[in-house]
Amino acid sequence: MRAVVYERYGSPERLELRDVPRPVPGAGEVLVEVVATSVNLSDWEGLHGSPAYARLGGLFRPRRRILGSDIAGRIAAVGDGATRFAVGDAVFGDIMPRYGGFAEFVAVPESMLAPKPAELSFAEAAALPQAAAIATHAVALAKPGARMLLNGAGGGSGSLAIQLAVQQGVQVTAVDNAGKLDFLRALGADEVIDYRRDDFTRQGPYDLIVDLVARRSVFAYARALAKGGRCVMVGGTARTLIRMLTAGALLGALTRKHLGVLFVRQRPSAFVPVAERCAAGEVQVHIDRVFPLDQVPEALAWHGEGRALGKVVVAVRGE
Q1: Secondary structure of residue 128 in the 3-state scheme
Q2: Backbone angles phi, psi at 56, to 5 degrees
Q3: How far apart are CA 189 and CA 183, in angstroms?
Q4: In the 8-state DSSP scheme, what is residue 241?
Q5: Residues 172 and 166 sit within 8 Å (Cβ to Cβ)
Q6: Would you state the pLDDT for residue 53?
Q7: Rounded to whole angstroms, how far apart are CA atoms 297 and 44?
Q8: In whole angstroms, what is the distance from residue 236 CA to residue 287 CA?
Q9: Engineering a disulfide at 94: which of 21, 75, 84, 129 sits with its beta carbon 3.0 to 4.6 angstroms away?
Q10: Which DSSP category does 67 fall into?
Q11: From its phi and psi, is residue 145 left (phi > 0), alpha (psi between -120 and 50) or beta?
Q12: pLDDT tens, 110-146?
C-alpha cells in the first residue's frame, strides 16, 4: 500500500510517499481502507517533535512513522474477536496515539471507531473526531450567558466550538489572525480579535478562556479572567503547559481563578454527538482545502502555518 512516511523529526520536506506493507488486524482490531483523513495540530507537532511532549513516542526518532489520526473509510478486514463491524461498513474515528491515517490502509482497535453517519461525506466525517471532542469538552465548561474567549479559533476545533457555544447561549469572543475574522463572525462569534494587533489578555474579563495555541504567562491569563473564571489550554508550548500545571495551580488558589489544562478523552462518545448534529444540519463542518495523498506535505504546511479556515482534509481515495 501507499503511505506517507517520515524517519526524522523536522519540516514537511521530511515526509515521503512510499510503498509499505499493508497492516494485518490483530485481535480486537479491524483493517480500515482509508477514504479520507484530516490534519490536526497533533500531526504538526508530531512531525516537528515539538513541543517536547510530542516526542513521548520516540525521543530522537519517531516511533510511529506514519502520521494521521482522524480517519474515515470502510472496513476491509476483521481481526479475531472483533464483532462490532463487518467488511464494507463505513466508519470514522480518532486513532491517536496509534496514528497511521496518512496511508491507504490502517489497522486499529474497533473500539476507536464509530459508524459513519450516512448524511456525512467521508471528508466531512474525517474532519470531525479530534476537533469535535476538543470542542465538546471546552464548551461543556461554559454556562449559558457566560463570556467565553477562544484563542486560535479559526481552525477545526475552534470553528466547531464557536457554533456549539453560541447555540448554548454563550457569548463568544474569537481570536485569530486578521484573515480569519470574517470567517469567525460568520460562525456566530459575538466579538473577534486579531491577535497581531490586540492583546486579548488585556481585555475582558472573561468567565472562560480556552487557548488552543497557548503561549502566554499564567499572570496574563489571570488578568483577563473574571472572579471565579477558568482558563484552560488545549495546545501550546511545553513551557506554558508546565507553568499551567504548576504556577497556574498556585496562582489559582490565591486568586480564586482556575488555570489548567483541558484533558480530552479521545473516544467515540466524545465526537459522535457532534457528528450527529452535523448530520442533522444543526452544526456545519468547515473544510478549507482537500489535498491528495501525495500532497500531505503541502497539507501539513497549509495547516501548520495557520492559514486554514476550519479543517484541512487529505483524500486518500475517491468516495
Answers
A1: coil
A2: -60, -25
A3: 9
A4: H
A5: yes
A6: 67
A7: 10
A8: 23
A9: 129
A10: -
A11: left
A12: 999 999 999 999 999 999 999 999 999 999 999 999 9
